[in-house]
Each structure stands twice: as structure tokens, then as C-alpha cells.
Write a structure and sequence with these properties.
Length: 343
Amino acid sequence: MNSVIKPRFSSFVDRFRGLQASSPWMRRFSMLAQVWTLIALFVFFSLASDSFSRPINLRNILTQVSTLAIFASGMTFVLLLGQIDLSIAAVAALSAMISAHLYSKLGYAEPIPSLAGIGAATFLGFVSGVASARFRIPTFMSTLAMSLIAGGLTTYISKGRVITKVSQLSMTLGSKRIGGPDGLPVIVIVAIVTLAVGYVILRYTRFGRYTYMTGANRSAARLAGVNTDRILVVVMTISGFCAGLAGIISMGRLHSAQPDATDSFLIDTIGAVVLGGTSLMGGRGGMPQTVIGLLIYGTLRNGLDNIPSIDIYLKEFITGTVLLVALLINTVFAGTAERDRTI
């Protein structure tokens, strides 16, 4: 049975890629696949729920994905290199805990606590990058180890307890609104600025071009004179900085520093970036695709919450299924990697 299914599936994939290569319409459709997905989800949930398309709920979606957007800004750089960062959630928790500890326990005034938290996260990202670039440790392993280190430090500092006294700066970033109670949340502005800076770097700077070159073909980039090790170190440092900033903002949203507050952001971040079309293989994607992925992820999560007839225990299953389909499309049908013809 396996021997029959695999050739048929391979033949289907080959025909799809051939049609994609020969037809301009198919190429355009493939490029806009994520946009069509977002539109389909929006229409479906608007019809399935009376409250979904209300302006206040659409604003809630933006607020809900804002912290995720900051994580995703750094992760986009990492995935464009064909690498992975498994430490972002633990690093974010450590950043928040360091900031809260300096502010509430040691009495330091802002901006020292926030800068210290973000600085520590940035340094840990730098260390992960050096470990992978200098000693050739795969980022999967170096960031996994860094996740344990950051988690251990968070537990040591907090002793497993929640710190409820946080600075006004983090509260402003995480909870304040501009224009009154119904105004624009500051966290949305921070997310937009972070994504915009990432877009400018990737689109208009030499470093951005080198990032794409390294992700597409690291050996060719090195032969072309690109210092690929330096690119890797800088990208991992950027990821650490974004995780640290997201940790400070998450603390402001929750009005407390919690050791496990950001645990769910790891899979959500990778899922959102991949949903937007950034390739896990590296060299393809960018911030515009990440924005689409964030909106898809936010729409899916919020839409499921607005349909009470869906069992709460099925929501994670449905979200995971959508992510799996996106991964299938991304890695099989996008044609970003050469398939092994011997299997």
C-alpha cells in the first residue's frame, strides 16, 4: 500500500510544481495563498459568530497578537537563515523576572530594570549565536540548552513565586491605551514599530540581503565573501533582544512577572511565522509574510473563542491541524527544497 501511495503523491506534487512553474496565474495564486487563507477565515468566522467582526473584537485581535508579533519579528530573522531558536519563551520569562526583581526587591528606578532585563536576553541570544557559529553546535541544540539555562535562572531568581510589583514603564508598554479606555493600545504601536524596523533591515540594508543569501545557500554566500558566522551571531542576538522586549511587555500586560507566563509563545511564534509563508528551509519570506501569519493565527484563535458551540478541548487540535496543513504546503508544494528522488 505504501509503495502505491508514495509514487502517486510524488506524481501529484511534480504535476503541481510543473503547473506552478508554467502558469503565471498559478504562481500568483501560490504567492497569495496566505492572503486567501486569511480572507477565508475572516469570512467564515464572521458568518459563524455575530460578535467576531465587531470593531472592538477586531481591535482585540490586534492586541492579542501584539506580544506574539514582537517574538515573531526576531524569529523571522532566524527562520530566514534556516535556523531555529527554542529559547525565546524562557529568555522572555528571565527578562521579565530580572526587571521585576531589580525594581521590586532591589529598588532600582526605571529604565535600569527594563534595560537590564532586555540586555540579559540580548546577551543570551548572542551566546547562542556564538556557540552555533564558532563551535558548530546546531541552533536546535544550543538554543535548547539556553532555554534550560534561562529557565533555571528564572526559577532561582523568583524561587518559583510570582512578583506582582512591576514598574510603571512595563505597565505603560503592556497595558496603557492612547486616547482613553477605547483608544489604541501602546502594545500595538510597539509591535508595529518592531515589525517595521525588521522590514527596513531586511529590505533595505546589506545585512538584510546577506541574511537572505546565507539562508538560501550558506556555502555560496560564504564563497561570495559573506561572513556567514557573523550573520548567524547577529541574527540570534536580534532574536534574544526581541524575546527580552516581549518579556517586559508581557509582564506589563499581566501586571506581574511569572516564571511560566510566556511558555506558550514558542510554538505560537514559530506557527505564526510559518503560517505567513516564511520557509523553514531559509532564504524565503520576510516581515510582510509574518504580518499575514500573525493575522491568520490571531483570527483563528479569536474566531474559535467566539464560537461557543466548539468544544474548548478541541480548539488546540483544530489550531494544530491548521498549522500542520500550512507546514505541508510550505515544505512540499512551495518547492523550496530539492526532494530526494530515491524515496
